[in-house]
Amino acid sequence: MNNNLKFKRILLKLSGESLMGKRGFGIDPVVLEFFADEIQKTHDAGVQIGIVIGGGNIYRGLNAGDQGIDRVTGDQMGMLATVINSLALQNSIEKKGIYTRLMTAIYMEQIAEPYIRRRAIRHLEKGRVLIFGAGTGSPYFSTDTAASLRAVEINADVIIKGTRVEGVFDSDPEKNPDAFKFDNISYIDILKKNLRIMDLTAVSLSQENNLPMVVFNMDKPGNLLKLVKGENIGTLIQN
């Protein structure tokens, strides 16, 4: 493995909304191709990669109540949406000649492997890109929480959350041009300042397990590879 890497095993968290591109709904193949390229560069550098992707481009369980659907059913629909996105991303990555595995927290063995921790770690050790679908498999938990949980379980060095902004700010940089960007911030300050970079369960789980997190702009080519090599990209969050 490349000794020049700062992070050798990562959990990459992508939002489902990021897959929409400029379409406003569904999956933009241009975005899929871009993500696959970025993952390929990082994989080729010797990084072991696990990925959790949301489903908000297809269905958000949190919006279920507005449609007369109960929360549990809505969350289950959201979990299935993440599997659709995971399959699309898997297909794009495999087109680059990289072996992948999709593991789901809900049994659907005709489509993907069931999630088994030891098997997941073995896939990573063999150099396969590993995609975790269907969240935690339980309602009331977001894919942010699923990312924190899987990162802890596979002994990842870091959670890397891809966004469309440069890191963590004290206010929304897309609305406030004077928003202040943090290069480093503690989990305690994230909670105190109520900075909604991930839901509270995900932040607490990462904090309790002393797992660092980096929030960065995934839309800039080469950013992911620079980050794992130790360049000052995004915002580092730790205890």
Question: What features would you describe in this structure?
Answer:
This protein has a single domain (9-156, 189-210), classed as Carbamate kinase, CATH 3.40.1160.10. The chain is an alpha/beta fold. The strands form two sheets. A nine-stranded mixed β-sheet has the order 4-3-5-2-1-6-10-11-9, with helices on both faces. Strands 7-8 form a two-stranded antiparallel sheet. The mean pLDDT is 93. It starts with 8 loop residues before the first strand and ends with a strand. The chain contains seven helices and eleven strands.
Which helices and strands occur, and which strands form pairs?
Elements lengths: L8 E6 L14 H16 L3 E6 L17 H24 L5 E5 L8 E2 L2 H9 L3 E5 L9 H11 L4 E6 L4 E2 L11 E2 L1 E3 H6 L7 H9 L4 E5 L5 H6 L6 E4 L1
Parallel strand pairs: 1-2, 1-6, 2-5, 3-4, 3-5, 6-10, 9-11
Antiparallel strand pairs: 7-8, 10-11
Helix pairs in contact: 1-2, 4-6
